Amino acid sequence: MAARDVHLDRTALSFRAFPGGDGCLVLLHGMLASHHYFSSALGGDLSPWRLLLPDLLGFGESAKPDVGFELDDHLACLADLLEAEGRPGPLVLGGHSLGCLIATALAARLPRSRVAGLLFLNYPRFTSPGLIHDTLRNGSTHYRQATEGLGDRAHEEILDISGEAVQKFAGLLPRSLQEEAMRTSPRSLAGTTRHCLFGYRPDPDLDTVAGLPMLFLLSRRDEVAPPRFILERHHDFPRATWRMFENAGHHLLHTHREEVLREIRSFLASI
């Protein structure tokens, strides 16, 4: 649990905002990243929508106390930020990779009338810590090297991967963002990895928000968040739009920027 002298509200978060008056799109970055993941690729290109890009607690320019953050810590800060900055409506939440999971949990806990839609890039839906471990070991040499010698994949030890080990995964990021990844506090990183990735199962929260308009942008060659796992729930979201990019990997936004931008603009216009 986070130390009680850490203010779990919007004052702990740094963010970047691009102006717009048609609505507010909030995008949450993934592991080891920051708002630069989106601002470097999207900038002000989604105007007339306001684009709100927080640095998650412990990442980027946000507060980095020596605390192993839990999911509720992230949600408390983000909910408070949205109360102050998540306007004008309609409000659309989304993210990339880990950011998809946190956005899902946040949307499920906000009032039903508050969120108008969800936008996901490379959604990492896993049903167990062991499945995450096996998938990442098969899909990432960086993860495989960092977890060499780890015990039984179903053991609690999987949940105790150190922040220093997770930092080694920076090689998964686009080269332009790798240096920034190393700024994350190891303890914060370990807590977020444990509680928001390995320890969080999104299906109950996905059930809660199933009736919302959704946009899923997926990559056929994504070995970190294989699309087949979220596609198992394809029929459960009656208002979802699905777009598969055949020749893309885990960082779809940075390899297929123009196509992704078109899909996002079209989705926002439909809200």
Portion of residues in helices? 25-40%
Count of distinct strands: 7
User: How much of the sequence is in beta strands?
Assistant: 5-15%
Which of globular, elongated, flat, extended, rod-shaped describes the shape? globular
Structural class: alpha/beta
Q: What assembly state would you assign to the polypeptide chains in this entry?
A: single chain
Strand order of the largest sheet: 1-3-2-4-5-6-7
CATH class: Alpha Beta
Low-pLDDT regions:
151-159
Q: Count structural domains.
A: 1
Distance between the termini: 37 Å
Q: Could you give me the name of the CATH homologous superfamily?
A: Alpha/Beta hydrolase fold, catalytic domain
Cα-atom radius of gyration:
17 Å
Going by CATH, the architecture would be: 3-Layer(aba) Sandwich
Q: Mean pLDDT across all residues, rounded?
A: 86
Task: Name the descriptors.
12 helices, alpha/beta, Rossmann fold, 271 residues, seven-stranded mixed β-sheet, 7 strands, globular, 39% helix
List the helices and strands and how they pair.
Layout: E1 15-18, E2 24-28, H1 36-42, E3 50-54, H2 71-85, E4 91-96, H3 98-109, E5 115-121, H4 129-139, H5 141-146, H6 163-167, H7 175-181, H8 186-198, H9 203-208, E6 214-219, H10 227-231, E7 240-245, H11 252-255, H12 257-270
Parallel strand pairs: 2-3, 2-4, 4-5, 5-6, 6-7
Antiparallel strand pairs: 1-3
